[in-house]
Structure formats: structure tokens, C-alpha cells
Amino acid sequence: MSAEKKKGLGRGLSALLDDSTSLLQHKQAAVAMPASNTLGSVNEIQIAEIEVNPFQPRTDFDEHSMQELADSIKLQGLIQPITVRRVNAHAYQLISGERRLRASRRAGLNTIPAYVRTANDQQLLEMALIENIQREDLNAMEVAISFQRMLEECNLKQEELGERVSKNRSTVTNYLRLLKLPPSVQASIRDGEISMGHARALITVNDPAAQLHLHHLILEQGLSVRKVEEMVRNLHAMPAKKPAKKAESLSFQVQKIQDDLASKFSTKVRLKVSSRGSGSIEIPFLSQDDLGRILEMLDW
């Protein structure tokens, strides 16, 4: 009998019992949770058993990009697994990776590699939002909306939110302030018509009418971020208007003329009309270029 066999037999009954108990525990664990849904590992899961995350913050998926990913998956498979939580023995709920899941379905896959996690609804939302925020192709409005949802639905403070997403408080605040811009400006940020730099400049303007005016000029003239920042500085440098002693209501006809002029010149126009019928027209401008634009429209 070899020394190796003697050593094995000499371990004693307790060691053999420990081995048997360990083997039994492993078998019981395998029965309780099949290899296909082991927590913390990458598993192949039936796509048909995965339901979409109800807290998915991303709603727009680029069609061309989606098709490119589907074609890539057909050739090379899915490189980055999705993350799901187990609902029951044959049902999972998506935590993150909806774009990958959609592309895999389009590629004709029946199964998909996935991390299986346990999470309650708040953790599910928080993980989905954090993963979304970390995407490079996420537009600024989607980030802002995700930040707002984390504050409201996950009961977080701005400092805690900053820690979760690895951003300082001022960055978080700047994104949240985008939600206070007029809807048309927010739409331009979402659609990539103006940049985050343009948006940061517009945020510092307190008057919504002035924000809309600058927004119109950015789209019409293709203004750079530096130019918009200069115009905003000039706007802030303008002396504050003294409050009127008593606001005089304009007649319907005068109000309509004022609104039509404001639309024509893309700026806030003010008409002053006295009881004798005399008055003045005030057309403010934000820069020398803006003045030139107005004068050109007047054929000056």
C-alpha cells in the first residue's frame, strides 16, 4: 500500500463524514438552485423568461445602432452579459441591459448570458438608473431625468446621489437645473440641437423669454458656446429695470402688435402708448451682432 493511500486512510472517520456532509450540501444546493440561475455568476437564461424592467429610464433606442449590435451578436455573440433578478423558478426581471436584450432578440437568440442578482424594487430602480447614467451615449436630458428620479423615487439627497454616480454635487445640480428650462429648449438638448455647454449658459439666465430668445439665435445662427456665454454676460451687465409704478394694460390691438413684433424680431418687444395715442417701441438687443441682425431686418 502506497504512502499516499495510507495518508488518505489515516484521516479518520470525522474527515470522511465532513466530506460526505459537504457533498450532500452541494447536491442539495444544486437541486435548490440549478446551475442556470446561480446567483453571482454568468448564466445562460431563456430570453422568453425575461420580462422588461418596469423602471427602465431609457425609452429611445437608435434603430441603426440597434441593428449594428444585433449583427455583431450574430457574428460574435453577446460579449457583455445583462443583469437580471430572479422572480421565480422560470421568470426573471431585467435590471440592466435592455438594449442588449432587444438586440439579442433581433439576432434570433433563444438564450442570453446574464448575471443573476437579488434586489428589491428600490434597488432595482437605483441599479438601472446608475447603469444608465454611466452610458457614454446618454443625452443630458436623460441624465437629468434619471437624477431627478433617483432623488424622488430612491429618497436620496444630492450628496448621496453624487456618491452613487461618482459625480460632484455641482455637476449633479447643473443637470437637475436643465429640467427648469423651457420645454422647447429641453427638446433641443435631447435631440442634440444644442450642447450641454449651450444649456449651462442658458441656465444662468433667469428670464424664460430671454432663454427662448437666445435658444432661437443658437439654432438660427449656429452660435458657439463661447458666443452664447458672451451674450449672457452682456445680458447680466444690463441695468435692472425699475419696477413700473403702475402697470398699464394694453388694448387688444396694441397687445397684438407687440406680440407680432416680438415674433418678427425674435426678441421681447415693448410698446408704450399714451392716452393721447403717442408712444414708443423698445427693441432690446444682446450684442452688437444681435443689433446688426435687427437693423438688417429694418433695412437700415
UniProtKB/TrEMBL annotation:
For biological process, the GO terms are:
chromosome segregation
Q: Might you report a single GO cellular component term? A: chromosome
- Spell out where the chain crosses the membrane: none
What keywords does the record list, in alphabetical order?
Answer: Chromosome partition, DNA-binding
**Which SMART domains does this chain map to?**
ParB
Q: Which family does it belong to?
A: Belongs to the ParB family.
Which protein is depicted? ParB/RepB/Spo0J family partition protein
